[in-house]
Write a structure and sequence with these properties.
The chain is an all-alpha fold. It has one domain (about 5-235): Up-down Bundle (Ferritin), CATH 1.20.1260. It has 7 helices and 2 strands. Strand 1 (about 140-145) and strand 2 form a beta hairpin. Helix 1 (about 5-35) runs parallel beside helix 5 (about 155-210) and helix 2 (about 35-105) packs parallel to helix 4 (about 120-135). It starts with a helix and ends in an 8-residue tail after the last helix.
Length: about 240
């Protein structure tokens, strides 16, 4: 299902296009009586072209909306992967922090790169993790202030390092998906803008032709108000109202 802004425009486009299609012969005949056969044929050709162009622009808008929604769906998996790896890496860092606190105290914890709360943001986890790996590389396995407790830097760095590599890759994948999502959003907005331009001209022209043919009620129905670009009043009025929670 398309987004509301696109769905309402599509509904309006279908109403105008249907009115243009089913009235083309009546408009032609009315024009023939008032302006002659040659002028009437020209109006018929123009009306059919206007309806075709309106449908074409509407289809392009729907395609752009579909592409953007597909990209949004694709974005979920990389984000889930990033968050899962970040949480695992954060758990490793917290275990290391507790071990360093127990064996050495605040000074060593600070030297490892820990300050304040251990971050949860994936990018911050990666930065902290890399700082910690560099600090661990300078430490040696040895005794602590706790009897019989030996601190082994490698026991912490070896499982942490591959996690950070995975996290770095996951962050890159999310960034790439975000770039693609931005591109499809821009394309969608451009398609909506073009639809609004074509819809306004097409609906107003078809409304004018219907009015000239004496079909005032149908002319009124397909005439846009400009209150909501690309949307007819009757589509606006059928929108459900929601009660504030």
């Amino acid at each position: 299902m398309g987004t509301k802004e696109v769905t309402n425009r599509d509904k309006s486009m279908r109403i105008v296009a249907a009115a243009g299609d089913e009235s083309v012969e009546r408009v032609r005949d009315a024009m023939c009586g008032d302006y002659g056969q040659e002028a009437a044929r020209g109006v018929e050709v123009a009306q059919r072209a206007v309806v075709a162009r309106l449908r074409q622009t509407g289809a392009a808008m729907l395609a752009a909306d579909d592409a953007h929604r597909d990209e949004q769906a694709d974005d979920a998996e990389p984000r889930d992967e990033r968050d899962a790896v970040a949480e695992e890496a954060r758990g490793r860092l917290m275990t290391l922090r507790d071990a360093a606190q127990l064996g050495f105290g605040d000074k060593t914890v600070a030297a490892l790169g820990f300050k304040g709360e251990t971050p949860a943001d994936p990018a911050a986890v990666l930065r902290l993790g890399n700082d910690v790996l560099r600090a661990l590389a300078k430490m040696k396995k040895g005794p602590t202030r706790i009897p019989d407790y030996v601190f082994d830097p490698a026991a912490h760095s070896e499982p942490l390092a591959p996690l950070l590599k995975r996290l770095d890759k996951a962050l890159g994948n999310v960034a790439a998906e975000a770039k693609q999502l931005d591109a499809t959003f821009v394309a969608k907005q451009k398609a909506i803008g073009e639809f609004d331009r074509v819809f306004s001209r097409s609906a107003n022209l078809i409304s004018a032709l219907l009015a000239a043919a004496g079909e005032d009620e149908l002319a009124r129905r397909v005439r846009p108000t400009g209150r909501h670009p690309g949307v007819l009043p009757e589509v606006e009025e059928t929108e459900p109202t929601t009660t504030p929670q």
